[in-house]
Amino acid sequence: MSRMTIVLLLLAHMCGAQTIKGKLFGEGVQGKEILPGGMVRWLGTDVATFANENGVFELPVSSIKDRRLIASNMGFVTDTIAVGDRTYVSITLRRDAKDLGTVTITDRSGARLSTTSVGQTEIINQRELSKAACCDLAGCFGTQASVQPQTTNIVTNAQELRILGLSGVYNQVLFDGLPMVYGLNYTYGISTYPGTLVNSIMVSKGTTSVLQGYESISGQINMESRQPDKTERLLLNGYMNSFGEKHANANLATAVGRNKKWHTMLSLHTVQPAGKVDGNNDGFLDLPLLTRYMALNKWRYGNEREKGLSLQGMVRVVSERRIGGQTGYAPAENEGSTSIYGQCVHYTQPEAYVKAGYRLSDDHAVSLAASGFAQQQRSWFGTTSYHARQQSGYLNLQHEWLWREKHLLKYGASYRYQELNEQIAFSDTFLHRTYAGRYDTRLRVPGLFAENTFHWKDEKYTLITGLRLDHHQQWGAYLTPRSMLKYVINDHHTLRASAGTGWRQVNLFAEQVNLLASSRDVVFAEALKPEQAMNWGVSHNYRFEAGDMTGAVTGDFYSTRFSNQFFPDYDSDPTRAIIRNFTGVSRSNALQVDASLTFFKQLEVRAAYNYLYVYRIENGGKNMLPFNPRNRAMAAVSYTTRNKHWQADANMHWFDRMRLPDTRNNPVEYRRPLYSVPYASYNVQLTYKWRTLDVYAGCENLLNYRQPDPIISATNPFGPYFDLSSVWGPTRGRELYVGVRYAIK
Amino acid sequence: MKKTFAFIAAMAALLLFAPATYAQADSVKTAVIKVTNLHCNNDMPTIKKRLLNNDGIDEVTYSGINGETSVFTIVYHTSVTSQEQIEKAIETTPGCDDKNSTPYRVRKENGRKKKAHE
Fold first, then answer.
1. Which of A6, A127, A643 sits opposite B10 (nearest CB)?
2. For residue A92, what is the nearest residue in chain B, using CA coordinates?
3. For the segment A615-643, what is each residue's pLDDT rounded down to a tens digit?
4. Inter-chain contact B55–A127, Cβ cutoff 8 Å?
5. pLDDT: is A458 or B2 the higher one?
6. Which of A130, A308, A625, B73 has the smallest set of CB atoms within 10 Å of its CB?
């Protein structure tokens, strides 16, 4: 307490005068929190005091004519409060604009929509991740409906994450806010992040910020890894499923240095292959033999929201081998064999990033981010050999400036670098394929960007407007405007709208691995231009509370229109895949309704419905995009006992019939129906928690549903009709698993 | 020296005039509440923090843990909150190790003892 205050207090007491007492709060992430040290002053006077360690303040009332208080605290918006004749006053200050938009994730509640972010952002946190085994990133979306994991290659079990019914290449996958999963890393990258490394996943649909680049079209998936200063000191995890696949994870975190200002985390992960399983007796393994090793070391110094320097860095190495195909395939002897079919992918990838920030004042901060990865891959897809190498880099320098209290401007420059070399050769001569050779895909893209966030009418409205200008080394300048608006109608209702464009360069074989596995010849009709699209969307979020029940209902609609798109044209010629730009009509319209209810913090129920209408107009006819069910539904139930020792989870995904690739040109025995049959898959899990030990067991695909004959011409894998691209449902049958997690906090 | 004097004077004034200051419609009461089902040393600070984030609570102190129980002494304003509300706040405090649980319970003593503290 300052001397002035003491004297004033003393005077007040001497005169036997009245005082006003009260409490000062600040708006926190989980409700209001006291603000010790905050200042409270009578308007137009020097009569002031500071809130004590309990947030309590007391001021004399005598000789005060204008009974209005001014309350202030760093990081919060100063407020004036009319007191009237109250003797006790509670003051809650709003957080300053520059702290908005950064969402602090807690593990208290489950998946939810962020209320603070301007774009529609769904947060999947650790509580939500604990509801399923979540071995890798692709397995983390079992209890939500926005992201749909889709198997792209049944033999190597490569998966992509679809948003709005569009291929995974159209959404941007970020690791700690930096682009890491693209190019050669696209096909297998998402599987290399174990669930134990993930702190939270933020899913944004539709238009997103321009700060992370020009690429996202259908949305963004940002995976935040665990923070060395906040995570458990030790975390051990083991998992095994009924096919015999084993996973082991260990995280170790500690503070280092004399002042314990540095924090570091070491994360180790391995997968050891399953036994050879062929449940449907088609001669092919149901799941590949997967061997993976990953080591990650992350460092952190300081806090970017405090003045001064903050640093964060990460180094990671992944080495992976996938072997799939006919059960007798052994890569050492059968690579490129024309008698026994198999696919073998083997790669090593080191990667790193550094983020440095310097906060000059409350209003100014500068940051520099650099990231990159290199991958060396040696693969065989039947008789096709694929050797590829990629070096990628990303550099971003940014200045952040809070101006006129209501605006936050972020602007800067970025550079994207990529050098992708792909070497293709064939070990057979009977398939008459002509595209052997070397392919180089480069990216040299300098760019400038600016984004302004404007809060007005007491945060009722927030508007983000962003623009970036990038220069592609071959195709020239690209302008990317994007905008997002949030309107908080009241405590219960929030409206959002967004619109913007995005573009991306195609990395042909790295992203279309099925081309290599196909018996078709690949014909290049013209040079591929970058794909470009415009997206707009609206969403409405309603949240309510009634007694011990809380709930939320969200409805959203997004529409994407491509102005240039690429997809291999399989229809013009049954023996060829033609590579050309598609500038005709290609659209995606996606509607989602999502409702969740929580009773007594024990029972959570969630249900969602998706309507997808994704089509292209080709040769005058409307063609629905394969593998997108028009209707899709999801339901999830989670129950925790009152003593929190037991947790039971169940979820169901139902898929309407999907359009499948056209096989009508094949001989009768190699034809498939034009549509799949509707099906549902059920998953359950039971978790027992005892202090920091969790034991979980579950079952995926409970009803043992399988797509019949997923591989076309499985008995003749070297024939011209061998086709892996007709997979629409589960192929591996029921899967049981057990796992254990142990943590030391 | 001057500072010390001012401080002593302020303290003396506070002691002398405190009762007069509080003699308004609002009164300040002290509640003594026994909280059970505590398992670690972090439970008490968790509860204290939760209580201080409520309006009308000026001060929270607690005794050391004794057989899963600690005695909390809470100074509060009757015009803003009540003992019932405080007890409810304690019982709905998320556990310090498991944020999804609300393990803490108020031990109801027989009326006589409770009254003696009020």
1. A6
2. B55
3. 999 888 898 988 899 999 999 999 999 88
4. no
5. A458
6. A308
Q: Residue for token digits 């990953």?
A: A294
Contact yes or no for A88 and B56 at CB 8 A = yes
The closest CB to that of A34, out of B26, B52, B100, belongs to B52
Contact B21 A19 (CB under 8 A): yes
- Number of residues written out for chain A: 745
Which chain A residues contact residue B60 at CB under 8 A?
54
**Structural contact between residues A242 and A229, judged by C-beta atoms closer than 8 angstroms:** no
Residue A548's region, left for phi above 0, alpha for psi from -120 to 50, else beta, is alpha
Does the structure show a pLDDT above 70 at A219?
yes
* Complex confidence, ipTM: 0.72
Burial class (CB in 10 A: 0-12, 13-18, 19+), A259: exposed
Q: Give how far Cα A202 sits from Cα of A133, A172, A315, A605, A606, Å.
A: 19, 12, 22, 21, 18
Distance (Å, whole) CA A233 – CA A255 = 9
And the tokens for A54? 């309990």
Query: Taking residues A136-140, what's their average pLDDT?
Result: 84
How does DSSP assign A454-497, residue by residue? Answer: EEETTTTEEEEEEEEEEEETTTEEEEEEEEEEEEE-SSSEEEEE
Contacts for A664-672: CB closer than 8 Å, 24+ residues apart: A665/A574, A666/A574, A666/A712, A666/A721, A667/A721, A670/A712, A670/A713, A670/A721, A670/A723, A672/A712, A672/A726
DSSP A569: B
Which chain B residues have any C-beta within 8 angstroms of a chain A C-beta? 3, 6-7, 9-10, 13-14, 16-17, 20-21, 24-26, 52-53, 55-60, 77, 79-80, 94-95, 97-102
Q: Could you give all domains of chain A from N- to C-terminal order, each with its CATH number?
A: 3-105 (2.60.40.1120), 109-744 (2.40.170.20)
Q: Under an 8 A CB cutoff, do B53 and A31 touch?
A: yes
Distance CA A107, CA A129 (A): 10
B53/A601 touch (CB, cutoff 8 Å), yes or no: no
Q: State the pairing for strand pair A476-488/A493-504.
A: antiparallel
In 3-state terms, what secondary structure has residue A137?
Answer: helix
pLDDT in tens, A79-100: 888 887 788 888 888 876 543 3
- The tokens for A496 are 């959002």
Which of these ranges, A94-98, A220-224, B85-89, B91-95, has the smallest mean pLDDT? A94-98
Provide the 10 A C-beta neighbour count for residue A617.
Answer: 12
Distance between CA atoms of A445 and A421, rounded to whole angstroms?
18
Asked if the Cβ–Cβ distance from B60 to A54 is below 8 Å, we say yes
Answer whether B26 sits within 8 Å of A87, measured CB to CB.
Answer: yes
Chain pair A-B, CB pairs under 8 angstroms: 76
| A692 min Cα distance to partner chain B (Å) | 9
**CB contact set of B113 (below 8 Å; sequence gap of 6+):** none
Asked whether residue A349 carries a pLDDT value surpassing 70, the answer given is yes
Nearest CB to B10: which of A9, A87, A90?
Answer: A9
Distance from CA of B12 to the nearest CA of A (A): 9
Instruction: Name which of B17, B53, B97 is nearest A33 (Cβ-Cβ).
Output: B53
For residue A126, how many other CB atoms are within 10 A of its CB?
19
For residue A687, give both structure tokens: 């978790």
Residue A492 near residue A543 (C-beta atoms within 8 A): yes
Alpha helices (H) along A475-618: 508-511, 513-517
Q: How far apart are CA B19 and CA B13, in angstroms?
A: 11
CA distance A10 to chain B (A): 5
pLDDT band at B7 (very low <50, low <70, confident <90, very high): low
**Whether the Cβ atoms of residue A593 and residue A606 lie closer than 8 Å to each other:** no
Length of chain B: 118
